[in-house]
């Protein structure tokens, strides 16, 4: 049987429900050959995960996932093989702190909107729920549920947190170009995450890819739970056409996305270990 890997996972360092160490343990239990931790906008889980991976003799890839906006839709860019060089990592961390600052401003506004609607909630409640450095909307949803303001996570989003709802606050977005540039500067391998989730026309998606390549985009996430087999085939061809490397992962978050398993996605995901060679070739030498 071919060896499998997972190059897209989240821990409590951002909006996942398992600690970085637990994510590595789960990957080991699943029999994966290699794992990348790719928390949103933070590197804070990498050290713990890397230590655990070493202990379990697993190949570990340092990663992160940056969110950007393009034509009013979310575009995510993964950075894989973040450098070992500490000064480069520190520079990247400084860039990411700006992201976190923006999130914090947004979070304060969400709290204000919820309070205005009579909900007894403070930023502290949500920060405690988050535990890590990054506070995101799933953490708000959990607190709303615990406080009895809603009866399910889905209701929290449908009533308050989703786009257009009463406590929604848009992000101050960066462009995908900027995300790729930040990662390129850090000597990471920038990969366009789950292209199917970018809500635009196929032509717009291709224009986006063509715009990002000269800025340093190196790969496309071909294997992802939202991609059908046809999508996989299509993005494989696209990667080939533009000489991009291919990546893939489950986008594991733990309890907030209970139908997604590490390494397996919804059950049908198979990310072959051989794609690592292609990604490694794109690493900054
Ligand atoms: Zn994403
Ligand atoms: Zn993700």
UniProtKB/TrEMBL annotation:
UniProt xrefs under Pfam families: PHP (PF02811)
Domain Polymerase/histidinol phosphatase N-terminal: 5-70
Signal sequence, renumbered to the chain: none
Transmembrane segments: none
Protein name, as recorded: PHP domain-containing protein
InterPro entries registered for this protein in UniProt: PHP_dom (IPR004013), PHP_domain (IPR052018), Pol/His_phosphatase_N (IPR003141), Pol/histidinol_Pase-like (IPR016195)
Xref: PANTHER family: EXONUCLEASE (PTHR42924), POLYMERASE_HISTIDINOL PHOSPHATASE N-TERMINAL DOMAIN-CONTAINING PROTEIN (PTHR42924:SF3)
């Amino acid at each position: 049987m071919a060896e499998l890997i997972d190059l897209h996972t989240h821990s409590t360092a951002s909006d996942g429900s398992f600690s970085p160490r637990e994510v590595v343990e789960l990957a080991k239990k699943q029999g994966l050959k290699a794992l990348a931790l790719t928390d949103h906008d933070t590197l804070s889980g990498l050290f713990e995960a890397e230590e655990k991976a070493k202990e379990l003799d697993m190949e570990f890839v340092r990663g992160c996932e940056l969110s950007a906006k393009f034509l009013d839709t979310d575009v995510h860019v993964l950075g894989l093989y973040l450098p070992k060089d500490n000064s480069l990592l520190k520079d990247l961390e400084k860039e990411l702190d700006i992201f976190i600052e923006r999130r914090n401003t947004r979070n304060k506004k969400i709290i204000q909107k919820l309070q205005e609607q009579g909900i007894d909630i403070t930023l502290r409640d949500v920060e405690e729920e988050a535990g890590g450095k990054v506070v995101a909307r799933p953490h708000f949803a959990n607190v709303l549920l615990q406080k009895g303001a809603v009866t399910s996570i889905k209701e929290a989003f449908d009533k308050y947190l989703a786009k257009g709802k009463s406590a929604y606050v848009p992000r101050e977005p960066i462009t995908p170009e900027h995300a790729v540039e930040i990662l390129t500067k850090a000597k990471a391998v920038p990969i366009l995450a789950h292209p199917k989730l970018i809500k635009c026309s196929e032509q717009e998606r291709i224009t986006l890819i063509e715009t990002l390549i000269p800025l340093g985009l190196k790969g496309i996430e071909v294997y992802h739970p939202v991609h059908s087999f046809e999508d996989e085939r299509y993005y494989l061809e696209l990667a080939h056409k533009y000489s991009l490397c291919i990546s893939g992962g489950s986008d594991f978050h733990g309890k907030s996305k209970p139908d997604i398993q590490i390494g397996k996605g919804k059950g049908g995901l198979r990310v072959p270990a051989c794609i690592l060679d292609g990604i490694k070739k794109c690493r900054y030498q």
